[in-house]
Amino acid sequence: MVVALLACPGMGLGEIGVTDTEIKVGTHLALTGPAALVGVPIRDGHKICIEHFNAQGGIHGRKIVYVVEDDQFMPSRAKEAVKKLIHSDKVFAIVHPLQGAGILAAEPDIMESKVPVLFVGTSLDALFKPVKRYIFGWTIPYYDSAAIQVDFAVKTLGKKKIAFINQWGPVGEVNEKGATDRTKKYGVELTACELLQNVEMDYSGLVSKLRTKGTEVVVITTTAQWTIPILKEIERQGWKTEVIVGHASGDTELLRKMGGSAADGIYVTLTNLPTDADDPFMNEYRAAVKKYGGGVEPSFYNFVGYANFHNFCTLLNEVGRDLTREKLVDTLENTWKNRETWAGRITYAPDDHAGQEGLIISRIKDGKVEIIKKWAYPEP
């Protein structure tokens, strides 16, 4: 009888992580340690989205069961979390993890088990280039975001001397290459391209170095633990330069709160609209938070968690009741091209798993966020 059920088309009982009534989905995030400030609100966003869809009867009659592992944003722990989700928890898919290096380390398990890892919340280009059939990004690759930032500095702000401050490692190296290639395209000067490794560093010396080189625009692509001290040092020195903060620190609420007056006047490239925006999808999100959030307030990372899990639920709906991993991947590769979403235009194809193509350009002014350009894409 069991064999007959497994062979019966449309029941979905032959696919790992899928039963007639449930779909088991997993992820790994930092739930403890310093990076829990990001991981916990993202997890909560996932859970709010799941409640939202499960309350409507699930996806084609199946409720979503959610498993989350704590990776503390450490590559070694992320690698083990991926292996546990695949081999012990036996999830159907892994949705919206953040720790890219750990996913790369676990790539052999992912590819051998053919488990889709979807909407990865990092821009690490090596995850998607070359394409790996079962790994899909979401956030715009850093090489492309560097192009957008230089485009804006040159064509909108009219500047010709640009410095980039990046964090050490593969992410910083990709930003450095993007900055180098783009400034060469325009024939403008890249006055510095710094790779920061230690948060406890001499920010005074760094900022002074950029000033002495006549830098007109500083592009900061680091995460907040570097970005905030840099902004405060620029203010302390009284340096009136233009600043563009990249999407790795694209939480305008956090920048305003922690940066204070040092954040006033800066430009910020964003992967999505601020959570208080009057936008149909953002309105849906805020309503879901109010109904299912248990007192949680709307916030940048909470929204990112909700929205990316919403992507997954949308995809499940499009695949249909006869759900398999291969159909999921095929649907994403063949029907999500030039799709307009809450994150602008995105594209997936058999030869393109990167996802997001553009960024919002905003400015913090007098404590408020002004949208300068709704979606900016790399200039040809």
Which properties best describe this structure?
15 strands; Rossmann fold; 2 domains; alpha/beta; 380 residues
Explain what this protein looks like in three dimensions.
By secondary structure, the chain is an alpha/beta fold. The strands form 3 sheets. A 7-stranded mixed β-sheet has the order 7-6-8-9-10-14-15, covered by helices on one side. The protein is globular. Helix 10 links the parallel strand 9 (about 240-245) and strand 10. The protein folds into 2 domains: about 1-140 and about 275-335, Rossmann fold (3-Layer(aba) Sandwich); about 140-270 and about 360-375, 3-Layer(aba) Sandwich (Rossmann fold). Helix 2 packs across helix 11, helix 6 packs parallel to helix 7 and helix 12 (about 300-320) packs across helix 13 (about 325-335). The chain is built from 13 helices and 15 strands.
Describe the strand arrangement of the main beta sheet, using strand numbers.
7-6-8-9-10-14-15
Q: Mean pLDDT score, rounded?
A: 93
| Helix run count | 13
Q: What proportion of the residues is helical, as a percent range?
A: 40-55%
Strand tally:
15
* N to C succession of SSEs: HEHEHEHHEEHEHEHEHEHEHHHEEEEE
Summed up, the domain count is: 2
- CATH overall fold name of the largest domain: Rossmann fold
Which descriptor suits the 3D outline? globular
Beta percentage is 15-25%
The level-1 CATH class of the largest domain = Alpha Beta
Distance between the termini: 60 Å
Radius of gyration: 21 Å
Quaternary structure type: single chain
Structural class, by secondary structure, is alpha/beta
Q: Ranges with pLDDT <50 over ≥5 residues?
A: 1-12
Please identify which CATH superfamily of the largest domain we are dealing with: Response regulator
